[in-house]
Amino acid sequence: MSLPGLSVEAIEVTKRFASLTPIRSVSFKVKPGEFISLLGPSGCGKSTLLKMIAGLREPTSGKMVVGEGSPNQEDTRVGYVFQDAYLLPWRKVLGNVTLPLELLGATKVEAEFKARKALERVGLIDFEGYYPANLSGGMKMRVSLARSLVTEPNLLLLDEPFAALDEVTRLKLDQDLRDLWMESKMTVFFVTHSISEAAFLTDRIFMLSKKTAGIHCTIENPLPRNRTLMTRGDSLFSQLNQELFVKFQELEA
Amino acid sequence: MIAFFVIVSLWEFIVRIKWMSSFILPEPSSILKSLIEDREELWGALRTTAFSVSVSFGLSVLMGVSSAIILFTSESVLFAFYPYTIFFQTVPIIAIAPLLVIWFGYGIPAVVASGFIVSVFPVVASTLTGLLSADPALKDLFKLYRASRWQSMVKLYLPSSLPFILNGLRISGGLAVIGAIVGEFLGGVGIGSIIDVARAQQRIDKVFAAVLLASGLGLFLIKGIDLVSYFLLKNWHPSELKES
User: Fold this and answer.
1) Shortest CA distance to B46 belongs to which of B215, B235, B229, B200?
2) What is the tens place of the pLDDT at every residue in A64-106?
3) Topology annotation, domain B38-233
4) Choosing among B236, B239, B242, which should be mutated to test the A contact, i.e. which has the most A CBs within 10 A?
5) pTM reported for the whole predicted model
6) Whether A104 and B138 lie within 8 Å, measured CB to CB
7) Where, residue-wise, is CATH 3.40.50.300 in chain A?
8) Could you name the CATH architecture of A8-77+153-252?
9) Angstrom distances, CA of residue B45 to CA of A200, B93, B101, B211
10) ipTM of this model?
11) Using CB atoms and an 8 Å cut-off, which of residues 104-163 of chain A contact chain B?
């Protein structure tokens, strides 16, 4: 069963690389079940922040608190979608989706059952026997999404997942993601440099700045919870886009 | 095929008209004659050589892949032991072959050792490169799901280094044949021994016949590896993927 979403709190988190400090004392609090986007220009540390939330990288100083404790505790189920699909090319679609469950020690039967369910959700059930080399970019990304969902995560992290796809596919996947989130209780972080994607998808938008190496501002999304393709034609949507665009300009200036 | 006939006919012609002595370069027809007349001796020797080559190549694959895995487990192990594996690459086999005969005695053991020494390094080096080239994003993925070292090795590192390993095997296969023949010069068995004896008897045609069989053996081995490679990689690796 799907667990309630996780709260995420960053306390004065700083990440330093040799001569670079992409993240400098960032703090925020995210409630269980929120859909957050991290919006900002390239190189502002969005992905680094996401990796720290996932527990894949340790902050140089400060603390990232996921759920009650550290990101690696038992009922913390993190799903992660990379910029590219990053499938195992030697495994068929089904094998790629069962992978997380295998690693967590599920039986083959259980893993395949859940993987098929996840593939059904992303509309690829007929392709379970294909190798990734025979899929289109959009399909690979869907497999990647199915792989991240198969563990029924309570925290889903996406790192510009649809950036490399064509416009139509991307709009479709944005919609799917929004619907998926509506059905579940999971907390979602979505990294993007696309203003309209952030505006359509999320509840709150954290705007990251390269200059201050932190969150420049937080914007509440005024759009209704239920969003469809029609939402994109809404005047509220264009206003939000406008507002975000102005803020973006400030960052770059 | 046409090129082959042209070259062979030209070769036969050059020797026939005495541009070149048949003691230096025997004509193709006499090589063929030797292949037929000495077939029993050559065939027996080929079988011995093929056996030694298979054993030394098999050992190289086994030892090469497993030592690369051990070297890969920690940076300090790699730092401490990798230089020793390079020894195998740089050792002049012809210089230590007599020692091998002293250590292992005449016959097959010395030959296997010689074949192994020259063919193990490419396997170690290519496996190691493969293991070290696993995709960082995939490593993160495995870390995210708390994969054990064993799971990561079996499900990530080994499969992703497969193309590298197979490439190493192609190089190693040819070297195993060369190493075994050098070993046989001194070990007194197989094709190598026939080459040595025939040369002493000025039977250059027989030398060529034996060399031909040795290269046939190498070719057979490498084609075999190509076939294995095709079946292992055909569905996913760009080197074996067909345009569709």
Assistant:
1) B215
2) 988 865 555 667 889 999 988 999 999 999 999 999 999 999 9
3) MetI-like fold (1.10.3720)
4) B236
5) 0.87
6) no
7) 8-77+153-252
8) 3-Layer(aba) Sandwich (3.40)
9) 76, 21, 19, 12
10) 0.90
11) 104, 131-134, 151
